[in-house]
Structures are given as C-alpha cells and as structure tokens.
C-alpha cells in the first residue's frame, strides 16, 4: 500500500547542512541555527541540541513529555532546565518537507522568528534538498475520536478533536473582532502547506502587545521582546499594517501553529483535526491525550 497522496513512501533527511540566523520573537536575542542531516542509523525524529561555546548543554528529542507551558509559543525543557522555545514553525516546516531525522543545533534558547511565518524555513530546507533513507515512512493512524473542549456553550468556547481519516486533514475556525469568522479546510500535504499555510505570519494587536511586554518584564518572563513589524502581522483597529500577505492570514497561521504542535507526536497524522479557536495549550492537550490513549491510534507504514 502506498502512502497518502502527496507524501513520500520513504523517510528522508536534508541533503546537506542548513545554517540560518535571526532573533527570537520573545527573548529578542540573536541565535544561530544549524540543522544537521540524519542518516539511516540516526534516531527517528527531530532532536534539538543547545550549545554554548562549542559545548553541548543538552539534547532534547521532540516529545510531548518535554513540552512546558509558555505564553504564545511551544517550548521544550530538559530535566535539568535547559530550554528551547518557539519551536512550532520549524517543526511544521520539517514535518511537511518530510525531514524525518535531523538534529537542530542552537546557540541560544529560542528558535529565530525570521519573518513570522514558516516560508523562510521552507525555502531554506528546499534549497538544501532532501535525500531518501532506507526506512519506510511512518504515520500515526487515528482509530477513534479524541476531543478536548473548554467553555462549552459560552462565547469563549474552544475545542479541538481528531477523528479517523485516510489523509491528514484539518478544519480550523477562528474569529477576531473586526475581521469576522475565518476558516481553513483542506488536506494537509507538503504542497498545500507550502502554498497555502507557510506564508502566514504571527499576528497580534499592537494595543495588546505593549502591556504583554511590560508584564513579561515585571514577571521576569520574556514575552514579545523581539516583536517587530518585520516579523509580525500587526493589527491596529480593524486593519493590518501593510496589509495581509494571504487571504484569511490569521486562521492560516493558526493552522501553521497547529501543524507544528501536532508534530510533537513524531510523525504525520492520518486523521482529521477539527479546531475551534485553537491555542498552543489546547493543541498540546490533544496530542498528549491521543498518545496517552492506546486504542485511539496505531503506527502505519507504507512502502513503494
């Protein structure tokens, strides 16, 4: 049996090393990234490696067990407190470019935000190229529905669920005052992600950002210190400074974050995700609940 349409039958990795630099959205600090290709003997999945002055501080395999709650991003933390923040855009890009084994090396704690979207990562990964590995590609096949919901029946209701499907599909709904209800619905493939989802940027209202930055300083927690017009779709009133990059950009960015957060499961999904006003916390709760429910999923491998 072949893999779902648009996906490879075999695992892959980068054809050569990828290097890229930028600043963190929340810390504002400069960070250099190297993504090292895996090989047939490398562990499955993506591993983050924190380094300083040529010394390895920690290696953090992508896993829901290492995820820690953090405002406005997804973070991994080792048992001895070494962190890697804002991993979601990169994880979404690696998953949809079908880079199944690689090590991401950083010399600071936050993955660079770049232009606020996944497009620079997609472009950089494609420029490096992908080579196949001898292993059959693995998917997580959903066997029954798993659902998380908060505030049912209220104006603040949020929910997210996943149910069986032969493809990786998503329906995501979100609303924002002044912009109405936004929706994205479709099959998630490497091509659809690159064309429809990757260009969408992180966004926020300027009037909310300034108090959040100040509150972060008071609490000793860096929040949005690196936010700039160059890396954020900034909302003032009912308009986006400079305009939207793609139609319904805000809900498409919710899809981007959701793909990255669900990548914590370690493989693409064979299931349909239905989300109403999703957040990083709810995304994590869904993937954690799915993996913790043995009769709700199984590994599926496909060969050419």
From TrEMBL:
Enzyme class label: hydrolase
Positions with a binding annotation for Zn(2+): 89, 253, 257
One example GO MF annotation: metal ion binding
Gene Ontology annotations for the cellular component aspect, listed alphabetically: membrane
Metabolic or biological pathway, per its Swiss-Prot or TrEMBL entry: Glycolipid biosynthesis; lipid IV(A) biosynthesis; lipid IV(A) from (3R)-3-hydroxytetradecanoyl-[acyl-carrier-protein] and UDP-N-acetyl-alpha-D-glucosamine: step 2/6
Pfam families, A to Z: LpxC
Biological process according to GO: lipid A biosynthetic process
Keyword DNA repair part of the UniProt annotation: no
Reactions mediated catalytically: a UDP-3-O-[(3R)-3-hydroxyacyl]-N-acetyl-alpha-D-glucosamine + H2O = a UDP-3-O-[(3R)-3-hydroxyacyl]-alpha-D-glucosamine + acetate
Superkingdom of the source species: Bacteria
Alphabetized UniProt keyword annotations: Hydrolase, Lipid A biosynthesis, Lipid biosynthesis, Lipid metabolism, Metal-binding, Zinc
Positions in coiled-coil regions: none
Active site annotation, chain numbering: 280
Co-factor requirement: Zn(2+)
The protein's Enzyme Commission number: 3.5.1.108
Annotated function: Catalyzes the hydrolysis of UDP-3-O-myristoyl-N-acetylglucosamine to form UDP-3-O-myristoylglucosamine and acetate, the committed step in lipid A biosynthesis.
Sequence similarity: Belongs to the LpxC family.
Protein name: UDP-3-O-acyl-N-acetylglucosamine deacetylase
Species, as recorded: Paraburkholderia bryophila
């Amino acid at each position: 049996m072949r893999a779902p349409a648009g996906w490879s039958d075999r695992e892959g990795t980068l054809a050569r090393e990828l290097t890229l630099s930028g600043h963190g959205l929340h810390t504002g600090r400069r960070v250099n990234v190297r993504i090292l290709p895996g090989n047939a003997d490398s562990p499955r999945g993506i591993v983050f490696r924190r380094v300083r002055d040529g010394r390895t501080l920690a290696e953090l395999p992508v896993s829901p067990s290492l995820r820690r709650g953090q405002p406005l991003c997804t973070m991994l933390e080792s048992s001895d407190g070494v962190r890697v923040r804002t991993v979601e855009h990169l994880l979404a890009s690696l998953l949809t470019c079908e880079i199944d084994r690689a090590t991401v090396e950083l010399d600071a704690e936050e993955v660079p935000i770049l232009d606020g979207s996944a497009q620079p990562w997609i472009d950089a990964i494609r420029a490096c190229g992908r080579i196949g590995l001898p292993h059959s590609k693995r998917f997580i096949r959903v066997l029954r529905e798993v659902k998380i919901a908060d505030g049912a029946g209220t104006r603040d209701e949020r929910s997210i669920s996943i149910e069986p499907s032969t493809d990786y599909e998503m329906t995501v709904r979100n609303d924002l005052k002044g912009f109405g209800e936004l929706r994205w619905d479709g099959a998630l493939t490497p091509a659809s992600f690159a064309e429809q989802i990757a260009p969408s940027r992180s966004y926020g209202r300027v009037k909310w950002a300034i108090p959040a930055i100040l509150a972060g300083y008071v609490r000793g927690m860096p929040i949005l210190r690196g936010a700039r017009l160059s890396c954020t779709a900034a909302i003032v009133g009912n308009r986006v400074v400079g305009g939207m990059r793609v139609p319904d950009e805000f809900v498409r960015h919710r899809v981007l974050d959701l793909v990255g957060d669900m990548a914590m499961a370690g493989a693409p999904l064979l299931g349909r995700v239905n989300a109403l006003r999703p957040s990083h916390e709810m995304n994590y709760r869904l993937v954690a609940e799915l993996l913790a429910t043995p009769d709700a999923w199984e590994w599926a491998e496909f060969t050419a």
